[in-house]
Design a protein that fits this description.
six-stranded antiparallel beta sheet; about 110 residues
């Protein structure tokens, strides 16, 4: 899995390499997307980012209760950001990842507001 985080262009591209297993989980409780975001979180942590994966509504976002995102911890050093599937209600990110590539939205400076 290749994770390219581009804070300038507000995009996180996740590319599935041939050796990577496909991610399944179906739309029930968004398990497939949750599994994908977990793997992306692990890769970002490996790259040195202090991030967590969380259900968006628990942070006060008015979204579907199943939708999750990756964000920097409050008080973490470096630039703050959050990553999510902006088309969550239309398509599942794990399905796009299984096809080879998925682009996720990025918003930066989330704690400076």
């Amino acid at each position: 899995m290749i994770v390219n985080l581009d804070l300038e262009n507000h995009c996180c591209t996740v590319i599935r390499e041939n050796k990577d297993p496909k991610i399944y989980g179906g739309n029930f409780m968004a398990r497939g997307e949750s599994n994908l975001l977990h793997k992306v979180k692990k890769e970002l942590q490996h790259q040195g980012y202090d991030v967590i994966k969380k259900r968006m509504w628990k942070d006060g976002h008015l979204v579907d209760e199943r939708q999750q995102y990756i964000r920097t911890r409050k008080g973490a050093k470096g630039k703050s950001f959050q990553i999510w599937n902006g088309s969550f209600q239309i398509w599942s990110a794990d399905e796009k990842y299984n096809e080879g590539r998925v682009s996720l939205l990025v918003e930066s400076d989330i704690w400076e507001k």
